[in-house]
């Protein structure tokens, strides 16, 4: 008999698999266990510092089936970046397959999963009255729930998360150890007996009630026109009834957010269809595990205009946590009785574009003058993460949907973006990004780890959060950077912060970083042209840049940190009187333009501008001062495309004062008469050894057309078309001079749907190949990505 056993064992093999990627916190180990057990294989699986390690033993045919199943039938949210197999020595006495305890290590290379929207199975249990997790606001399983926001350190195991404060009850532990259960090794598993709890207080932290009663009372308060600050998965939201214009006004007043669009949460797609026009592709995105805010075309009059007063779109999202589902379901019942649309304003609880507030004590201090009530819970948020915001781009490039990230955060961070053209042995780099819409990046081989959106680095709290997140991600993934990259601007916080690392520093100009960002997304290392269109950035010639055409050559910068790219063209320079003040008061930009061209002396212009400024006579006094400054060359100049939009917007009387970034341009975009196909006169000149799209010709023509009583909506459309045609002509000149036909497009102006739709078409019409952002924001949230790519090419 012993001889037969030995002969049988000779036919058996043992294999080891190292699998890297998004394989922790996504139910992958339980899946491997179940797969091996069903096939009668023995061995083990565990988390390691590199990813997941599998040892599996059995006959050839079953081992082949095992490999095929773990590759092709893995959980939908699991992602492999690599899978390597090796032969191992056969273990004679092994009789079962086990999930082993995870290995700790000083360098952790596996990926941490982002937070995942509540899965359909948990939603069903949440609404089943006989289930012991019925209406429990922290239900989760291996397929969904918090991940990145609750992890202290890697690997992803319960004792490394904020769930370590909640020991399992008997039932949850039984589920955790049952290989046939959906919660088998679910690290965030909990129930009403052993898990987190929530409670309701007033704005002075006076306790009212807890758990299910707290939710019911919160909905009652919302329906009565109150504002609730609710702690979610990655931070606090401010919530109110989206159908109540009065409470929306109250929220805007208290938060000092008079005009910026507010995001809205609805219970389901059927309700969303009552508020916005939605395509099937957009529905899929809203229902995805990432569950971002999706910008959609609004149905007029479906909600109060003060939800998004400047635009014809609306940002909608579906519930992505159990607490959201309970709130929305309860609200739906109330709405049916009152015959109103069940919709909640769900806006991030932050101050002046800063980091979302995520700590209970901090929320009490900073939100008590905004909110009427707090809905707290006691599961600690380790990493604050805001909602992601996306929109479907209408550029028709490629066959798959073209999504445009306005903000990349929850559901996506901290997953890396792989750039195949980078080398595996490139030194680890940290890139610190821009001052506004700040993000940072670490690199590891071909992977660039782009952080979540953190906020504008204009407040000490946001600076602190930025530094803490850098430290956390560095520790989480075991990064040991050898080089730090930052912007050229000497006054940026990130420029000062770079010096604190004690590492070699590389600096890259802001708009060139935009250019490398879009090239990196496409793994493009050959020479390319890039149009970068944004607000303002520190130029290399003493002016403020923001409308540039660059010639970039990623592969040629190796070992040459001084090589960044060549500036071939720009928009014409316009005055920026008062610097930062003109950004917030764009009427000053118009004043500077009038002073520059002295067209205040031209017939009819004086009366036109007096009409615009009729309610602000003091502007004429300031205008006189600006005129003198311009005549004496004592004013900064800018080629900024964003500032050009602001100038035109204020010329049309659309926006004199800015209450949020991009407001004047947004109003101009949404003023267009889309039936118009006319352009403006385009003039390209060569000036100071650089080509220039003469935007003063645009402005003069617009003034003349205004005097002819042409409608503002027609002129807004003609401006957009004229700018697109002029930029495309500029790119064509660049192509003819360099022989390069690839044109990248980057910068915050690409958030403008008209520009991002028409400009690629105009480039293709001229025989050029446009490259657009896909997974990285085109605005300043993508700057760090471009910095990281450029530095990787320099150090390759």
Explain what this protein looks like in three dimensions.
The protein has 24 helices and 32 strands. The chain is an alpha/beta fold. The strands form five sheets. Strands 6, 7, 8, 9, 10, 11, 12, 13, 14, 15, 16 and 17 form a twelve-stranded mixed beta sheet that branches. A seven-stranded mixed beta sheet has the order 29-30-26-25-24-31-32, sandwiched between helices. The radius of gyration is 28 Å and the shape is globular. The model has no long low-confidence stretch (mean pLDDT 91). One of its GO terms (biological process) is protein maturation. The active site is at residues 29, 47. It catalyses: an acyl phosphate + H2O = a carboxylate + phosphate + H(+); C-terminal L-cysteinyl-[HypE protein] + carbamoyl phosphate + ATP + H2O = C-terminal S-carboxamide-L-cysteinyl-[HypE protein] + AMP + phosphate + diphosphate + H(+). Keywords: Hydrolase, Ligase, Metal-binding, Zinc, Zinc-finger.
Q: What about the largest sheet?
A: 12 strands, mixed
The span between the termini is 61 Å
* CATH-defined superfamily of the domain at 198-377: DHBP synthase
Radius of gyration of CA atoms, rounded to a whole number: 28 Å
Give start-end ranges of low-pLDDT stretches.
Answer: none
Give me the secondary-structure category.
alpha/beta
Count of helical stretches: 24
Tally of strands: 32
Considering DSSP H and I runs of 4 or more, what fraction of the residues is helical?
A: 25-40%
CATH topology of the domain at 198-377: DHBP synthase
The assigned CATH architecture of the domain at 198-377 is Alpha-Beta Complex
Residue fraction in strands:
15-25%
Average pLDDT metric: 91
The CATH class name of the domain at 198-377 reads Alpha Beta
Shape: globular
């Amino acid at each position: 008999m012993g001889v037969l056993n030995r002969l049988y064992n000779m036919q058996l093999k043992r294999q080891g698999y190292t699998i890297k990627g998004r394989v922790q916190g996504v139910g992958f180990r339980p899946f491997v266990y179940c797969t091996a057990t069903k096939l009668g294989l023995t061995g083990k699986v565990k988390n390691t510092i590199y990813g997941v390690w599998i040892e599996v033993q059995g006959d050839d045919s079953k081992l082949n089936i095992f490999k095929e199943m773990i590759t092709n039938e893995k959980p939908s949210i699991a992602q492999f970046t690599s899978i390597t197999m090796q032969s191992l020595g056969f273990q004679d006495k092994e009789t079962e397959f086990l999930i082993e305890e995870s290995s700790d290590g000083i360098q952790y290379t596996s990926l941490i999963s982002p937070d995942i929207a509540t899965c359909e199975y948990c939603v069903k249990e949440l609404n089943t009255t006989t289930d012991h997790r019925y209406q429990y606001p922290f239900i989760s399983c291996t397929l969904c729930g918090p991940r990145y926001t609750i992890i202290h350190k890697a690997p992803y195991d319960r004792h490394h998360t904020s769930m370590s404060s909640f020991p399992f009850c008997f039932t949850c532990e039984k589920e955790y150890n049952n290989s046939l259960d959906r919660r088998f090794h679910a690290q965030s598993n909990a129930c009403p007996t052993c898990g987190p709890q929530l409670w309701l207080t007033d704005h002075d932290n006076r306790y009212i009630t807890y758990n299910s009663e707290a939710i019911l009372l919160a909905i009652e308060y919302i329906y009565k026109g109150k504002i609730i600050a609710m702690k979610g998965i990655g931070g606090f939201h401010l919530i109110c009834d989206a159908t109540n214009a009065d409470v929306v006004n109250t929220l805007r007043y208290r938060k000092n957010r008079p005009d910026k669009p507010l995001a809205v949460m609805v219970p389901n797609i059927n309700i969303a269809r009552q508020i916005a026009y939605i395509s099937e592709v957009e529905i899929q995105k809203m229902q995805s595990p990432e569950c971002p805010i999706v910008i959609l075309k609004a149905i007029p009059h479906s909600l109060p205009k003060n939800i998004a007063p400047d635009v014809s779109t609306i940002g909608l999202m579906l519930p992505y946590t159990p607490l959201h589902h309970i709130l929305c379901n309860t609200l739906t019942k109330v709405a049916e009785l009152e015959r109103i649309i069940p919709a909640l304003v769900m806006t991030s609880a932050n101050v002046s574009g800063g980091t979302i507030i995520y700590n209970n004590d901090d929320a009490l201090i900073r939100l008590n003058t905004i909110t009427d009530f707090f809905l707290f819970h006691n599961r600690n948020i380790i990493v604050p993460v805001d909602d992601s915001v996306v929109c479907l781009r209408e550029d028709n490039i490629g066959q798959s949907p073209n999504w445009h990230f306005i903000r990349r955060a929850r559901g996506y961070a901290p997953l890396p973006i792989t750039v195949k053209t980078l080398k595996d042995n490139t030194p680890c780099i940290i890139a610190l990004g821009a001052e506004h819409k700040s993000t940072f990046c670490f690199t590891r081989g071909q992977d660039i780890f782009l952080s979540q959106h953190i906020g504008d680095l204009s407040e000490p709290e946001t600076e602190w959060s930025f530094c803490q997140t850098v430290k956390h991600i560095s520790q989480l993934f075991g990064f040991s950077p050898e080089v730090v990259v930052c912007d050229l601007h000497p006054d940026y916080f990130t420029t000062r912060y770079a010096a604190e690392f004690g590492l070699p520093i590389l600096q890259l100009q802001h708009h060139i970083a935009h250019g490398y960002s879009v090239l990196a997304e496409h793994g493009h290392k050959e020479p390319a042209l890039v149009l970068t269109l944004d607000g303002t950035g520190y130029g290399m010639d003493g002016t403020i840049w923001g409308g540039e055409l660059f010639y970039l050559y990623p592969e040629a910068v190796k070992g040459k940190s001084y090589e960044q790219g060549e500036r071939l063209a720009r928009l014409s320079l316009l005055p920026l009187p008062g610097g930062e003040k003109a950004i917030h008061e764009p009427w000053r930009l118009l004043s500077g333009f009038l002073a520059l061209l002295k067209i205040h002396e031209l017939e009819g212009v004086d009366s036109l501008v007096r009409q615009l400024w009729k309610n602000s006579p003091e502007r004429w006094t300031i205008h006189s001062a600006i005129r003198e400054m311009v005549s004496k060359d004592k004013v900064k100049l800018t080629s900024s495309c964003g500032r050009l939009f602001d100038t035109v917007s204020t010329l049309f009387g659309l926006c004199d004062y800015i209450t949020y970034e991009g407001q004047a341009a947004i109003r101009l975009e949404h003023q267009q008469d889309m039936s118009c196909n006319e352009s403006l006169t385009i003039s390209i000149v060569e000036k100071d050894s650089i080509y220039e799209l003469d935007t003063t010709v645009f402005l003069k023509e617009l003034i003349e057309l205004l005097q002819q009583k042409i409608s503002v909506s027609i002129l807004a459309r003609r401006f957009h078309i004229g700018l697109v045609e002029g930029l495309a002509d500029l790119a064509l000149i660049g192509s003819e001079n360099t022989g390069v036909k690839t044109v990248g497009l980057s910068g915050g102006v690409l958030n403008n749907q008209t520009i991002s739709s028409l400009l690629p078409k105009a480039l293709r019409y001229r025989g050029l190949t446009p490259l657009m952002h896909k997974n990285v924001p085109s605005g300043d949230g993508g700057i760090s990505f471009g910095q990281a790519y450029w530095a990787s090419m320099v150090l390759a």
